[in-house]
Predict the structure.
Amino acid sequence: MKIPKELLEKMNEDDKAELEELTPNEEAGYQEMENYFNESLGRFKASQIIMGKVIAISKGLVTVDVGFKSEGLVSLSEFPENGKDLQVDDEVEVFLEKVEDNDGNVVLSKEKANKIKIWDDLVKTYEADEIIQGTVIAKAKGGLTVDIGLKAFLPGSQIDLRPIRNLEKLIGEKFDMKIIKMNKKRGNIVLSRRILLEEQRKQIRTGTLEKMGEGNLIEGIVKNITEYGVFIDLGGIDGLLHITDMSWGRVNHPSEMFSIGDKVTVMVLKYDKDKERVSLGLKQTSPDPWVDVDSKFPVETKIKGKVVSITDYGVFVELEKGIEGLVHISEMSWSRHVKHPSKMVSIGDEVEALVLTLDKEKKRISLGMKQIEPNPWDRIEDKYPIGTEVEGTVRNLTDFGAFVELEDGVDGLIHISDLSWKKIKHPSEILKKKDKIASAVLSIDKENCRISLGVKQLLPDPWDEIAGKYPIGTEVSGKIIKVTSFGAFAEFGDGLEGLIHVSQLSSKNITDPEEAVKVDDDIKAKVIKVDINNKKIALSIKAHEENLDLSQIEKEQVDMEVFKEE
């Protein structure tokens, strides 16, 4: 009789000897056992799911009879709810890991049987392209881990139509998804929710496009806010509501009017089918307040309004919702020294103004605040007649003169040439800001709001006495203050300047003035010519060196016109 190898391995020598002495009936019994054993081996193979019967439950273990020569043990924790409803004689599906371990026991697993069954079900779902529901259980690298009976991966790019920054907030959420990839060898399952959203979006989009006629009203949800407008989800297609089309009034930033998720009814202004771009308008859903603006705010009307914006060049005043007027900085005060509009008004202030101009087509209104007050220039000629001595405060100094404030809104200019009878290079030599100064009114330009003032005109002209004080031939001492290509200037007396031609710089014959004198040189010279009308004096170092008398000096011909400061 052929004894199965598996049986022989379990026999000792006495058992083997005993087999040799079997009777024919006993041998038939053993043969029957051998046949059953061989049949069992044929029926059971490792790594497959088989049916078994629960024959015992004890100490956290379940004994399962799978019809083999020995039973298998399965942990109670591998059954649903830790085997709460499991009873003896129940039939269960188990996974056969090994037909026999080292101890001769069958190795079974309920957990693996469950996973294999779930995997097989998921394969059917995948092949049928069916929807499956899963629960997000954790954040993973590049996406989320989702429980669909087995752990599966939902990539970040497949979660939604747009990237989601905070993935943690989705943990615990349930979603409908589709399986897009399965790898049995690695046990990998990849999901996509985006596929379903795109399908839904496509269906919704078809209905939305039917409503996309220009001028139609359509409802949408604010999905993004930028500085220049908001993007609105109209249902499968996005539209842009530009900031200029949000309100007939001023909108500094779209966030003043909208928040993400807001529902809003807008008008389709333009739809480009080729580029799939939709321009939307909100203000167009209400009447344009500018339609009858000319009857509500005609020119010369006094109005009251609220300051809603301040710029470097003026302020915008809201007359009513959707209608604003500009008060230019030059129209804020009769005073010319408003450095910035914010020095006079603040946002939210109520101001009174006059409508100066109105352009209904361009939707522009110019306002004036200063026109509410009397114009000080209307009676300027009566208040400041020419020749009148006036007093004011130095407000500003420039290279060409000084601005003096006579009263609020009335400034006069003292040109540098009218500050002193002496020649000065800059007004700061004799004045500084906020100085009180007396001057005479020289001229008035009422139309351009200008007054010319003079300080030197209040004093006698020293040139009236120059000819008598410095007759030709008078010897003077001075200092060189400037050297030019044609000669030099020397200061002498009470701040007078004398002009020394190159021919008069030395008794020697020179062509370059710098050969004879330099700035700050002390010199002695004689007066050789006095031009009262043009307020010029010509001096001669040569006449001093040669001690020329009056008759000799009169022979020296000097062209006074060549002495022009560079």
Summary: The two ends are 140 Å apart (CA to CA).
